[in-house]
Amino acid sequence: MSAVTVIDRVNGPAVSERAIHDPAIAAQLARLQAAAHGRDAHGIRDLALRGELAGKTALVSSFGAESAVLLHLMAEIDPNTPVLFLNTGKLFGETLRYRDRLQELLGLGDIRSLAPHPADRAARDPEGTLWARNPDSCCDFRKVVPLKRALEGFTAQITGRKRFQTKNRAAMQAVEFFDDRFRFNPLAEWSQADLEAYTVKHALPRHPLVEDGYPSIGCMPCTRRVAAGESYRDGRWAGLEKDECGIHGVDGEGI
Ligand code: SF4
Q1: Structurally, how many domains does the chain consist of?
Q2: Best residue for ligand 1 mutational test, from 245, 248, 253 (most atoms within 8 Å of Cβ)
Q3: Ligand 1, closest atom to CA 136?
Q4: Rounded-to-integer distance, Cα 201 and Cα 229, Å
């Protein structure tokens, strides 16, 4: 039995049942967590992309408000790292153009655009309005299912999740194991000021909607501007308890 402390839930220090019962996984997780201790974002990135996990890691990106930082960190090591991008069919056009711009700028060589399966779309949301009636179900077939399928075959992934983003992310560790793969969160400790400083230092382009009042950007029907005095994620699924799309239950970026 592993000595790893386990909280088997969506966004806590996520460790799956397999990590508890598979001594080899538990030992590897403990080793990676020990190696991550005291490292900064670059060091955690290196753990994910170099050494024992080189060539086995994917990055999941929404090409949203803060995505350029993680993509830039990754591209410094290997711009051909697979980037999994959930093209839900409900994104802003600005996001698609921003993806293309970052691809060009950073030389990203392996962006994989994940669409919902046509059969799922026909069966579950033929009119494209499920988001208004049942957003959890909409996120499931447009995000969770395609991402889970795309992550098969990868041993690890890197996410851009930050602890400050939601209360559920406040306890996440830099290295986790969830749903059969390691999950690295190199930006876990970063604040919005850290992100801003990195963006300025490297002259990274900003998502065009940020300056238009969208600090967190997801699908068009479920994202609105944030007014003065509102918090960072208040523009996502406004009026609902929901503050996650569900992909972090299977893995994911700060989508
Ligand atoms: S964010 Fe909204 S539109 Fe996008 S998948 Fe979820 S419910 Fe559907």
Answers
A1: 1
A2: 245
A3: 7
A4: 28
- Which residue range forms the structural domain that includes residue 189? 17-249
CB 168 within 8 A of CB 247: no
Task: Give the residue with greater pLDDT, 96 vs 234.
Answer: 96
Has residue 67 been placed in a domain?
yes
Residue type, 161: R
**Ligand 1, atom 4, residue with closest C-alpha:** 219
Is residue 173 in a domain? yes
The predicted pLDDT at position 234 comes to 65
CB distance 12 to ligand 1 below 6 Å = no
Q: Is the CB of 145 under 6 A from ligand 1?
A: no
pLDDT digits (tens, 9 = 90+) for 38-80: 999 999 999 999 989 999 999 999 999 889 999 999 999 999 9
Indicate whether 254 belongs to any domain.
no
Instruction: Please indicate whether residue 3 or residue 119 has the higher confidence score (pLDDT).
Output: 119
Starting at the earlier edge strand, list the strands of the sheet with 83-86: 111-114, 83-86, 57-61, 156-158, 181-184, 175-178
Q: Does residue 255 lie in a domain region?
A: no
pTM confidence score: 0.85
> Who contacts 129 (Cβ-Cβ below 8 Å, separation ≥6)?
none
Active site residue 139: no
> What CATH number is associated with residue 54?
3.40.50.620
Phi and psi (nearest 5°) for 32? -65, -40
Q: How many CA atoms lie within 13 A of 40 on its CB side?
A: 3
- Residue 154 tokens read as 């990868």
